[in-house]
Amino acid sequence: MGACDVKLTLKNERANYITSLDTLRGKVELNVNSEITVENVQIKFEGFAKTKIEVKERVHNGNSSQTRTQIKRESHTLVYNAVTLFPPSNVREVSDNKKFTLTPGKYEYDFEIKVPLLNQCADGGAYGSHQLSVLPPTSSLSDLFNIHYLLKVTVRRTTWYKANIREIKPVNLRPFDPIDEIIAFSQPLFLRKDEVFKGMIPKRIALTEKPTGPESYKIPEKKSLGGKSSRFLKSVFGGQVDEPNYVDSTIVPFSLEIRINGPYLSMGQTPNLSLFITSKYGPERYKGIDNQTSGLGSFYLHHLKIDLASSICLVAQSARKLLLPEYSIFHQKDLNYPIDLANLQPNPLSNETSNSLPYELELDRSMFEGDAVVRADIPPTCRTCNIEISYKLKVTATFVENIDSWSSKKIEVQAPVTILSGIPAPEEYIEMRQIPPHIAQQVLRNYPPEMFAGGNNMGVEAIFSNDAEISPKILTGEKVDGNQLPSYQSATQS
Fold it and tell me: Most buried among 51, 54, 148, 332, by the most CB within 10 A?
C-alpha cells in the first residue's frame, strides 16, 4: 500500500463503448494513507494513432554490404483534454502556491469531459502532414498499428524524486454513423457482370400446345460424336438411316446483378443486398409451345461467397506499408440453387438505369440472410494522418449447367463500400448539421431500439412514430444534394 491509492469510475450509460459528442461522466476517488504534497490532481482524456513499420535497408561498407532492419514509428495525438480536479478553480485563481498538502483520508472528485467530433492532430505535432477527420475507432492489428483512447488520472508530486501516482482506464471509442452522408448517397448501388453458357440445349420439347401426358413431349439428346460413322455404315450396308433427334446447341447469356441499398454496411448486421439474374431476353425464349419451361435456361447456383476485401495503408515517417486482409461474410458450397430463365420477370428498373437489363429473376435471400453477417470485430472505415482503412464488397458466384457438371462459370463483382459502426447519430449532431427531423427519422428508423440507450438521440418514441412526416426523396431513393448540408468544419465552428 502506497501513500495514495487512486480509483477511477466511469458512469456512462453505455457499458461497452463511447462515441463522439458523448459527455464522459465519472468519479475519481483518492485514498490518502499518509500525508502527501502535490502540485495538482488531473484527469485527462487522450487518444493516439500509432504506426510501426520495419524497413530493410542495404548498407554498403567498402567492398561489402549487409541488410539492416530499421524500425520506423509515427504517433499522432487524436485528442487531448485535461481537467484539473484539485485544487479547485477558485483556489487556483487566487493562489500562487504550487504546493498543496493532502492529509490522510478519502477524497472524491466528480468529472465531466466532452468527447470532440474531430481530431486535434492538425493543431500541432512533430510530423508535417496532418488531416482533419472524425475521431477514428479504437482498433489495432498486431503491432503494426494501434488506435487507442484512455482516461488517465495523475496525482502530480512536487519533487522529481517522488514518482507521480497514476490510474489509467482504456476507453473503447466507436464513431457514430454519418447520417448526412447516408442521406446524400441514398441511391442503390448496382454491380453487374455478364456471362454465357454455350452448348446448351432444351431439356424438354413440347410436341403439342396442350400436353396430355408424357407422350406429348420428348427429351432431346445432343449429337453423338460417333453419329457420322454410324450413319455411314448403315448406308453402306443398306440399313435405314435414322433421323437425328437432337437440337442445335444454343447459347444462354445472363448476368449476375447485385443491388445494395446504398454503399454502406454496418458491423454485426446482414448486408442489405439482393441478388438477381438479369437477361436481355425475355422468358418466352426459354419456354416451349405449351408455354412451359423448355429447360434451355435451366442451371444452378453452385457456390456463393461474400467477402470484405480491406485495404489498410500505414505511414511511418518516410515508410509506407499496404495490408490487404480479407474477411468472410458468407461462404457456402454445394448450394445447388435452381435457376430457370423461363421464370424471368420484367425489370422495373430497366428504364431508370441505362445499364440495367429488361428482365430479372430475384434469388431467394434466405440462402444467405441468416448467416451472412459483417464481422463486429473489424474496424469501421476511417482515416487518420498515418492510417487509412477502406473496404470493397466482393461477391463471387459459381454456376453450373447440371448438378454433376465438371465445368462451371465463375462470376466475381466488387465495389467500394463504407463500413459503419451501426451507431445512430446523436441529436446534437443532427441539429449541428441542420438536418430536418422528418428526414433524420427515416434513417434512424433502421436502427434497433436498443441502440438509442441513454437518450442519445431524438427519442425512440419520436423516431418510430408513424405520424412522422416522410420525405419524398427518401422514399423514392432520390439523391439528396449533399451541398445543401453544412460541412464538418462549418458545423463545428458555429
Answer: 51
Q: Write down the pTM of the prediction.
A: 0.79
Q: How many CA atoms lie within 13 A of 373 on its CB side?
A: 8
pLDDT in tens, 312-368: 999 999 899 999 999 999 999 999 999 999 999 999 988 765 567 899 999 999 999
Summarize pLDDT for 103-139 with one digit per residue, the tens: 999 999 999 999 999 998 765 544 556 788 999 999 9
